[in-house]
Amino acid sequence: MGMRHAWGQDLPFGLSTADRRQHTYIVGKTGTGKTTLLANMIVQDIAAGRGVGVIDPHGDLAYELLNSIPPSRTDDVVYFDPADYEYPIGLNLLQSSSPDSRHLITS
Questions:
Q1: CB of 69 within 8 A of CB of 81?
Q2: What span, in angstroms and rounded, lies between the C-alpha atoms of 9 and 18?
Q3: Is the pTM of this model over 0.85?
Q4: 100 has a pLDDT exceeding 90
Q5: What residues pair up with 12 in beta bridges, in sequence order?
Q6: Cβ neighbours of residue 60 under 8 Å, at least 6 residues apart?
Q7: Cα–Cα distance between 77 and 67 in angstroms, integer?
């Protein structure tokens, strides 16, 4: 949380922890800082010891975030890159589901 000066007083500004636990929709033109905002929020959460999940279709943000992980959190990281054929990781979404609910998971 930051502070902003308005109407002669300092007011809190930012997204609360409760708000950050919800979906956040960030829109803007190319080059306006959307990815930088997300990266800063993710780095703050990692530094605070909170869990973070990042789905990055291009891979640029995820790769950049790997350099921002403090040594104390490296054992908490799972980097899943389905395009990495040298080190493939199996992912079976049906493994822990009951046979009765598998049709719901696949749909």
A1: no
A2: 25
A3: no
A4: no
A5: 3
A6: 35
A7: 12
The 3-class SS string of the chain reads: CEEEEECCEEEEECCCHHHHCCCCCCCCCCCCCHHHHHHHHHHHHHHCCCCCCCCCCCCHHHHHHHCCCCHHHHHHCCCCCCCCCCCCCCCCCCCCCCHHHHHHHHC
Residue 40 has pLDDT above 80, yes or no: yes
Q: Is the dihedral of CA 29, 33, 39, 40 positive or negative?
A: negative
d(CA 44, CA 47): 5
Token pair listed for 21: 């636990």
Buried b (16+ CB within 10 A) or exposed e, 92-107: eeeeeeeeeeeeeeee
| Beta pairing partners, 6 | 9
